[in-house]
Fold this sequence. Notes:
Keywords: ATP-binding, DNA replication, Nucleotide-binding. Helix 13 packs antiparallel against helix 16. Helix 6 links the parallel strand 3 (112-117) and strand 4. This protein is an alpha/beta fold. It contains 16 helices and seven strands. It has a five-stranded parallel beta sheet with strand order 2-3-4-1-5, sandwiched between helices.
Amino acid sequence: MSEADTETVPGRGTIWVEKYRPQTLDEVAGHDDITARLQSYIEKNDLPNLLFSGQAGIGKTTSAVAIAKELYGDDWQTHFLELNASDERGIDVVRDQIKNFARHDPGAVDFQIIFLDEADSLTNDAQAALRRTMEQFSDKTRFIMSCNYSSKIIDPIQSRCAVFRFGPIPDDAVAERIHYIANEEGIETTEDGVGALVYAADGDMRKAINALQAAAVMGETVDEESVFVITSTARPEDIKEMVKDALEGDFTRARSKLDELITERGMAGGDIIDQLHRSVWEFGLDDDDAVRVLERVGEADYRITEGANERVQLEAMLASLALN
């Protein structure tokens, strides 16, 4: 396929997550309260150390980079150091890269920024060294840290930061962004297709955009079926039927549906557990049944996380629901 042909095929040539990454805080979707507070820091040119926490794909890294771009303009990369702490998580990265950058004279700007992505991957020793570095160079360096779990960040660092907790991006904000990108790329979508993208993303904008791009390559129209296939996601009604069959004592039928999800759709046990957990209150179950399902889901999730066989644990969960 020639380069000219490639440019006419939706989804080819560029990664849409990067192509449509927000460049300013105003463009960050779904976190108006947080971006407004961050914008006030920028307007006053008075940025504290920041700690962003929350699940993946909700705008933590994008917000950090947008802060640097708004503070420093075209020279933002000169005054901004980005490190992924999951790649280099030991004390040496603090002693070498971070400390060397932090001691630099920021020049024409009041301070420079060090951004530590996935900071909860840093060892305790590295975090202790980081705390000292934050104190030592507080006159000319600000730190922005992002993490999935703020509880893994030691208290002395948390107390030195303004903590922002990013929640999942609201469904309407995800849908709006999908419609915008589809329009920009000339992609035809159905409402069911957009709804499926929103459901599969579960508040993760990056996942929604990647799924849209992948589905756009498959055919002319992004519809519900193509999205569920691409994302290896079960339809909510399939999960609901499996659970109801088990609760009604029909273990054989429930197990058959589970087998279809794992074998034919290629779903992982953890993904099935996640869908069950976030959908159980949408099944119309009475409180007693909902509590039973959640109890069994929690037990199966723990065992799978500890390394137990996924299929065995999921079948045991359905059998337990069918017996009671």
